[in-house]
Specification:
Helices cover about 20% and strands about 35% of the residues. The chain is of the alpha+beta class. It has a single domain, classed as Alpha-Beta Complex (Peptide Deformylase), CATH 3.90.45. Strands 1-2-3-6-7 form a 5-stranded antiparallel β-sheet. A 3-stranded antiparallel β-sheet has the order 4-5-8. A hairpin with a 6-residue loop joins β4 and β5.
Length: about 160
């Protein structure tokens, strides 16, 4: 299991990540280990910097808790467009355990990325799925949710709390 880095001032979490030039076996292994680590923490997203690798790789558990739940790995993700419509939502983070706050994000996004099989992909996302991907891409740029949040507070994790 990979160790998830924590702390608002953690140097690795605050660095901008570099693009992945080639998806090789080490990238695929990292993705597999990230999925395990995210699952063990009941997370819905994880970025490579959170496990000590400043490269542009994220994983997202889309449609969490629904029958069509799927985990998607995104290499070099970028948001191609965002809706003007915004919405606030409570976010937590595996790298800031116990901290929660309200973050305003675009309700819909279009994200472009490369799959772990090397295929270029484009997905349109909305609501929680869009929030998860925006949160994880922020990690790739050294931005933590507390940088954007209001009403930051501590709370104990409950069984149905999903951390981004």
């Amino acid at each position: 299991m990979l160790e998830i880095l924590t702390g608002e001032t953690n140097k690795t979490l605050r660095e901008k990540s570099v693009s992945v030039a080639k998806i090789d076996s080490s990238i695929k292994k990292l993705i597999k280990e990230m999925v395990k680590s995210m699952g063990s923490e009941n997370g819905v997203g994880l970025a490579a910097p959170q496990v000590g690798s400043n490269i542009r790789v994220i994983i997202a558990r889309l449609n969490p808790g629904e029958g069509n739940e799927i985990i998607v790995a995104m290499v070099n993700p970028e948001i191609a467009s965002c809706s003007e419509e915004k919405e606030a939502g409570e976010e937590g983070c595996l790298s800031l355990p116990g901290m929660w706050g309200q973050v305003v994000r675009s309700r819909e996004i279009i994200v472009r990325f490369t799959s772990q099989k090397g295929q270029d992909q484009t997905l349109k996302m909305e609501a929680l799925n869009a929030r998860i991907v925006q949160h994880e891409i922020d990690h790739l740029d050294g931005v933590l949710f507390v940088d954007k949040a209001t009403g930051i507070h501590e709370k104990k994790m409950e069984i149905d709390d999903l951390q981004i």
